[in-house]
Amino acid sequence: MRERIPQRVDYQRYTDQGITLKGVISLEESHKDLVRFTKSIIENMGDIQYDLVFERDISGNRIVTGEVSAEVTLQCQRCMDNFKLELKCPVSIAFVQNDFDQQQAEDSLYDIFWLQKKELFDPRILIEDELLLALPQIPMHSESEIGKDCDVHVEFITGDDVEANDAGAGLSEQKDEDNPFAILKQLKK
Ligand SMILES: [Zn+2]
């Protein structure tokens, strides 16, 4: 049986011992436990994969590095159709409990995971944060799909609409159909 991701991790022990967390969060689990993520997308397409290595780096930072990935469906804000996107999130995080930790972590260019006074944390929160950060702010089809899968349908107001508003007005209906000045003519009447 597949091992479930632990829900409480002692970051000090994990980073001291160089522990690796590797596995998947199933679709079912993600619906139940990663609610923020699930609500930010149209649909999660499958397992969320994680491969995280906890350790102390040469400067003493307690860090976790690796990758989180998932495939999701988003709604394109250009054409409003859904599209699939593979999220691959490189993880490079330092655990921080005070300003000194934070300064050192930032000097080493890590992202920050604040733990305040706690030693234990839920790694699913870290995974979920990484996925949320990887989501595009404005989801859109890739440029290569524009004009193909990503096609914008714009409805223009045609002469027919003008005439429909003025049904029975008269003789020049046919002529005005393609005439851009038809509207002016209507106003003058
Ligand atoms: Zn699109």
Question: Can you give keywords for this protein?
Answer:
elongated, binds zinc ion, alpha+beta, six-stranded mixed β-sheet, 189 residues, single chain, two-stranded antiparallel sheet, 2 domains, 29% strand
What does this 3D model show about the protein?
The chain is built from eight helices and eight strands. By secondary structure, the protein is α+β, with helices and mostly antiparallel strands. Strands 2, 3, 4, 5, 6 and 7 form a six-stranded mixed β-sheet that branches. The protein has a two-stranded antiparallel sheet with strand order 1-8. α4 links the parallel β6 and β7. It is elongated and about 75 Å long. It binds zinc ion (ZN). Zinc ion binds next to loops.
CA-based gyration radius: 28 Å
End-to-end span in angstroms?
81 Å
Helical run tally: 8
Rounded mean pLDDT score: 86
Largest sheet: 6 strands, mixed
Low-confidence stretches: 167-174
How helical, in percent, are the residues? Answer: 25-40%
Number of domains: 2
DSSP strand count: 8
